[in-house]
């Protein structure tokens, strides 16, 4: 059964398609001379046929869609779903709809999504740095900003309204915590690798800024304690639980294995927890483990995971407030809001084994 059209509604109501359009778009309220009896006939026909206006066509006519786009970097990570939750809560309260997509850590895909969603929405919230990595994406961004298309970024950006929350201070606290427990061989599972990269270890920052707020304070903490930064203890991998498992296996099978691991997201830490268990290691008696993001599962693991939180629900809500203000005032100066992360000590960290 084909979808009913305005022509079908007009035929059933005995009016013109222009009259149906006026009623559907809310113009039959005095601005267009349509009687209440005619208006009611159109509404009855709409109900009888189950007619629904084409949202994209309406957006073109009215100049807005009441829809905001959100581009996440990785659709599989619950951390980013917390952001989406905050974004949707705030949008719903403001009478907007959410259009969600993921750049999937892929620069080309991110560029295509960026371009398409900017056509279909009243504004965009970007959480993925991969959106900006191609030259074409930079041109698209410049064009959008030139025509004052509303964009907000979760993370630092020199030209766009942004909500900033990073793990630098929390990582310094995590390192201080582990060092106070006498850990001296501390491994890092650096899960930022893009799918096309194939490096196993790293001793310098690599490509993605997504993990530098953990990598650099980790290195600084070791140096401040008079300890070497050992490239063998830093494993670069992907971002999934399985990646965390394999990276932890690599670290825990070293001749001189680490006594503590930092995994730069909780999914990686969950993989590391499984690897340690499979090797017969007890957490935290034999190995301390620290994650990041405080996803809901983190406080229900056995043991409960020591981690850090950016309060991503709040970050999402702040990004929406910023974007909606930009929609109302396109010429205002760039805005920046900072949300502090916090380090959370739970059961997965303890004294180093001797």
Describe the fold and architecture.
The chain is α/β, with parallel strands linked by helices. It has three domains: 6-53, 434 Repressor (Amino-terminal Domain); 65-165 and 311-340, Rossmann fold (3-Layer(aba) Sandwich), CATH 3.40.50.2300; 168-309, Rossmann fold (3-Layer(aba) Sandwich), CATH 3.40.50.2300. 42% of the residues lie in helices and 14% in strands. It is built from twelve helices and twelve strands. The protein has helices at 6-13, 17-24, 36-49, 55-62, 78-93, 107-120, 135-146, 168-180, 212-224, 241-252, 266-278, 312-328, and strands spanning 67-72, 97-102, 123-126, 151-154, 161-164, 186-190, 234-236, 260-263, 288-290, 307-309, 336-338, 342-344. Strand 3 (123-126), helix 7 and strand 4 form a beta-alpha-beta unit. The protein is elongated and about 90 Å long.
Protein traits:
alpha/beta, 434 Repressor (Amino-terminal Domain), Rossmann fold, 3 domains, six-stranded parallel sheet, four-stranded parallel sheet, elongated
Short account of what is shown:
The chain is of the alpha/beta class and 354 residues long. Helices cover 42% and strands 14% of the residues. The strands form 3 sheets. Strands 2-1-3-4-5-11 form a 6-stranded parallel sheet, sandwiched between helices. Strands 7-6-8-9 form a 4-stranded parallel sheet.
């Amino acid at each position: 059964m084909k979808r009913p059209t305005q022509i079908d509604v007009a035929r059933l109501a005995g009016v013109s398609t222009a009259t149906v359009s006026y009623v559907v778009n809310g113009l039959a309220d005095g601005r267009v001379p349509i009687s209440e009896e005619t208006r009611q006939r159109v509404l009855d026909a709409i109900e009888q046929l189950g007619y629904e206006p084409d949202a994209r066509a309406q957006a073109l006519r009215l100049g807005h869609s009441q829809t905001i786009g959100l581009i996440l970097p990785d659709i599989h990570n619950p951390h980013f779903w917390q952001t989406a939750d905050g974004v949707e809560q705030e949008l719903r309260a403001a009478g907007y709809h959410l259009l969600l997509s993921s750049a999937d850590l892929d620069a080309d895909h991110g560029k295509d999504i960026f371009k398409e969603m900017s056509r279909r929405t009243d504004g965009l919230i970007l959480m993925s740095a991969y959106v900006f990595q191609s030259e074409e994406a930079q041109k698209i961004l410049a064009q959008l900003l030139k025509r004052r298309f509303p964009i907000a970024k979760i993370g630092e950006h020199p030209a766009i309204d942004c909500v900033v929350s990073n793990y630098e201070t929390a990582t310094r606290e995590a390192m201080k915590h582990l060092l106070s427990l006498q850990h001296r061989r501390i491994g890092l599972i650096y899960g930022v690798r893009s799918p096309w990269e194939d490096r196993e270890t790293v001793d310098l920052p690599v490509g993605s800024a997504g993990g530098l707020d953990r990598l650099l304070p980790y290195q600084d903490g070791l140096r401040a304690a008079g300890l070497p930064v050992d490239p063998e203890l830093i494993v670069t991998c992907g971002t999934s639980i399985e990646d965390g498992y394999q990276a932890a296996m690599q670290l825990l099978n070293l001749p001189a294995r680490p006594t503590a691991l930092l995994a730069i997201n909780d999914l990686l830490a969950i993989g590391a927890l499984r690897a340690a268990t499979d090797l017969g290691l007890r957490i935290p008696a034999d190995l301390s483990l620290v994650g990041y993001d405080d996803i809901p599962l983190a406080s229900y693991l056995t043991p409960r995971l020591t981690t850090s939180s950016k309060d991503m629900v709040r970050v999402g809500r702040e990004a929406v407030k910023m974007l909606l203000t930009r929609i109302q005032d396109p010429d205002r100066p760039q805005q920046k809001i900072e949300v502090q992360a916090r380090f959370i000590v739970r059961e997965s960290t303890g004294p180093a084994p001797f």
